[in-house]
Amino acid sequence: MERTKAILTALSARLSIPWRLIQLYSNPNDFILDPFNGSGQTTKVAHHLGRYYIGVDTEQTYVDLAKQRLDEPLHLSTILGRDWESIKFQPGALEKYR
Predict the structure, then answer these.
(1) Contacts of 53 (CB under 8 A, 6+ apart)
(2) Using one digit for the tens of pLDDT, what is the confidence trace for 9-62?
(3) Most exposed residue of 4, 23, 44, 69, measured as fewest CB within 10 angstroms of its CB?
(4) φ/ψ (deg, to 5) at 53
C-alpha cells in the first residue's frame, strides 16, 4: 500500500498533460485509448471529461489502482489556475478555450 501512495503522490500533479491533450484532440463521447495505462491518469481524465476510454496494462496492481482512481476528483484548479471543475459538465462550455 505504501508503494501505491508513492505512485499517486508522484503522478497527481501530472494530470494537466492528459487533460490538455484530451481537450484539444477529442470531443465528448469520443473513445480514448491508453495502451500503457499504468496508474490510470489518462482514463481518469477521460472519464471526467465525458469520453469513453480503454486502458490496458499487464500488471493487475496498476489495473486495480486505475479503477480505484476513476471517481476521485481531478484537482486541476490549482494546476491550471482556473476553476475547471465548475464547467466540466456543461456541454460546449470549453469551446471558447480550444
Answers:
(1) 31, 32, 33, 34, 42, 43, 46, 47
(2) 555 557 778 888 999 999 999 999 999 999 899 999 999 999 999 999 999 999
(3) 4
(4) -145, 150
Helices assigned H by DSSP within 1-98: 2-11, 16-25, 41-48, 60-69, 77-80
Backbone angles phi, psi at 52, to 5 degrees: -80, 150
Q: State if pTM tops 0.85.
A: no
Length of the chain in terms of residues written: 98
Query: If we measure between CA atoms, which residue out of 42, 70, 36 comes closest to residue 56?
Result: 36
User: Are 74 and 19 a contacting pair, CB within 8 Å?
Assistant: yes
Distance between CA atoms of 8 and 2, rounded to whole angstroms? 10
